[in-house]
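I am writing to request your help with a piece of structural work I have in hand. A protein sequence and the structure tokens that stand for its backbone fold form the material at issue. Please examine both parts with care and let me know of anything in them that strikes you as inconsistent. The record follows directly beneath this note.
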Amino acid sequence: MSKTKPEPATAGIESKQTTVGSVFVSNYPPYSTWNDDAVLDVHQALGEQPHPDASLGLYLHIPFCRKRCKFCYFRVYTDKNSSEIDTYLNALAKEVELYSKQPAILGRPLRFVYFGGGTPSYISVNHLTALVERIKKVMPWDAAEEVAFECEPGTLTQKKLVAIKGIGVTRLSLGVENLNDEILAENGRAHLSKEVYRIDPWIKELAFDQVNIDLISGMIGETWESWRDTVQKTIELDPDSITVYQLELPFNTVYSKDILGGDALPVADWKLKREWHQYAFEQFEQAGYAQSSAYTVLKKDKPCKFVYRDAVWQGSDMIGTGVASFSHLSGIHFQNAPSWGDYLSNLEEDKLPVYRALKPTDAEKLTREMILQLKLGKINPSYFKAKFDADILTHYSDAYQKLQNDGMLRVIADSDEIQLTQHGLLQVDSLLPNFYAPEYQNTRYT
């Protein structure tokens, strides 16, 4: 993309309308700067001992779905049969086995495991149990702090939930998104609200340590009336945590392609999406939840953690397995082959399917951790001084001064804290490019 049309994720665009382009910031430097030259650094790091203080996580990408949501930008497949799924899961297990033998991974305990997608709950009980049995032989997670599992409500049965609990899942995350059937259908969701209510008693009976519900403010067709109704119904479902995202339109979604093709879609503007987001958090707070980040609230009376999120935002090592998955090891970022064929063919040859990578500088590592942790709503400068020997208020003085003048955050020097205001939290991703190095501003994000 030319610099005359930068993406919000690298330009901090204060756009009124929801335009096509990545908004949500999940890493730094931007993915578009990663390259195959740095893949050699990955293999070198795998052959060396890890940092003694580094924790390790495992991400397992299950890329199958019943339908592709019109706003989805993940690597997913809706056309794979049981045999193809079996082939993929065997490759996924082999990838974990290959990693488990590397000096940087060998014998290290897992702090967290994350089953993401796609729809991990799409696969059969037999497929799931066979996959887990094989992986746990080489990378067991019985002592992990968190095992998270993403679900689409319509794919769950009572038997499957029992199996999910049986593999050690502690955090069940339900992709509800909305509780209005017309909105779900319009946006291409595979489930309807009745399926949420069908599974709810089974989930409560199994007593998972933590149940999370995902919502999206600003789905096509949303109104104030429908959003209020979804928020109230979510409170009545009584999950342990609730995560609210604002609809964005990265380049590879169905909706984005429609818009770029000339279609006019009734997409809510950013101001309205933020108002819906703020309304939801206000209602959740009145119902006994406390804000944990720009997107998540947790029950005040129940200890809840999000180990995966916090570990990734603090630079933890994480091996991302599966097609197109992202990893971080010994300070190096890397991604797997993004196509089905390339991913499988590498593993057929007993090769790790690493596709591109980036070895960031110390300054880039500092920026990455700081901007991601700003999404929590508050950070402590002393943390970055101890870890990076950097005074962030001096190093990023212009950016902090600007955001403080704009009412987006407060620097509380006597308590060693930087706090985002509610106004800043509601648009935190658009603030983060203020901290980017000049060469990463106004570039393509992905």
Summary: The domain at 1-14+362-436 is CATH 1.10.10.920 (Arc Repressor Mutant, subunit A).
